[in-house]
Design a protein that fits this description.
Largest sheet: none
Shape: rod-shaped
Distance between the termini: 115 Å
Structural class: mainly alpha
Low-confidence stretches: none
């Protein structure tokens, strides 16, 4: 009769190899899970940082008062004098003409 391992020892070896394969698969899955979770966490942070300026703008938009501010003219006489001075200057026949020439390399004038 040939010597070999008994059935009980064979079952132990099979169980041990099966457990070893499961542990390797578990380690691989754990590494992948950690890698994916880092990736998605970084993607979420990137999205939140990219959306932050838009959220700030929306906050300013919604917190803004929609009431029109009323302006009170304190001294209308000074404005009338200024307006007549501008009107007189606009209708005067004084004109100023300025010319500027620049020398560009490669072009003859």
């Amino acid at each position: 009769m040939a010597k070999g391992i008994s059935e009980q020892e064979a079952e132990k070896y099979l169980k041990g190899s099966y457990i070893n394969e499961l542990e390797q698969a578990l380690e691989t899955n754990d590494k992948l899970f950690k890698r994916k979770s880092k990736y998605y966490y970084r993607a979420l942070m990137f999205i939140l940082m990219a959306a932050l300026p838009y959220l700030v703008c929306l906050a300013f938009y919604f917190s803004k008062d929609n009431k029109t501010q009323k302006i009170e003219i304190v001294n209308p006489q000074k404005i009338a004098i200024f307006d007549t001075n501008v009107h007189i200057m606009a209708h005067s026949n004084l004109s100023v003409t300025t010319t500027t020439t620049t020398k560009v390399p490669g072009f003859l004038v």
